[in-house]
């Protein structure tokens, strides 16, 4: 029997939770996904998953979980694979694509469909720092708000 709900999917991405609201970070290899995650973690975010997360629609929200094989691990370029405290799941409120050709200005966030749900999405140039501050501002301005019950 099918329920009509989209199944969970594995995405090659890095994800952190800022006060319970997750930012899903994507981009090509070497673009700085983990570096941005580390900067956000240094500012109080918590790792959800690095280089692979499981996305699942749940009650109208997109939930990110660490991939079971890499839960609690973060690959830091030049240092190796390190243990990192992580949260078991968080609601995805913003998608960031690291892209050197990102536009200089936007009026509003685009949307990306993931597991049947549309999430606000922004392209940020990894060369245009300060990335963590931009990501936090993007979450505040363009991200989905905290879940209400």
UniProtKB/TrEMBL annotation:
InterPro entries: Hpr_kin/Pase_C, P-loop_NTPase. CDD domains: HprK_C. GO terms for molecular function: kinase activity. It comes from the Bacteria. Keywords: Kinase, Transferase. Residues 12-83 form the HPr kinase/phosphorylase C-terminal domain. Coiled coil: none annotated. SUPFAM superfamilies: PEP carboxykinase-like. This is Serine kinase. It comes from Novosphingobium decolorationis.
């Amino acid at each position: 029997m099918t329920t009509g709900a989209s199944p969970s999917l594995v995405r090659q991405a890095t994800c952190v939770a800022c006060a319970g609201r997750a930012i899903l970070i994507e981009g090509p290899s070497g673009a700085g996904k983990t570096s941005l995650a580390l900067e956000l973690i240094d500012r109080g975010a918590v790792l959800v998953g690095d280089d692979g997360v499981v996305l699942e629609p749940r009650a109208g929200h997109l939930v990110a979980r660490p991939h079971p094989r890499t839960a609690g691990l973060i690959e830091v370029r030049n240092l190796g694979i390190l243990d990192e405290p992580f949260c078991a799941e968080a609601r995805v409120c913003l998608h960031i694509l690291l892209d050197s050709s990102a536009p200089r200005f936007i009026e509003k966030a685009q949307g990306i469909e993931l597991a049947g749900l549309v999430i606000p999405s922004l392209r940020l140039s990894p060369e245009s720092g300060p990335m963590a501050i931009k990501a936090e501002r993007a979450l505040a301005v363009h991200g989905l708000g905290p879940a209400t019950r």
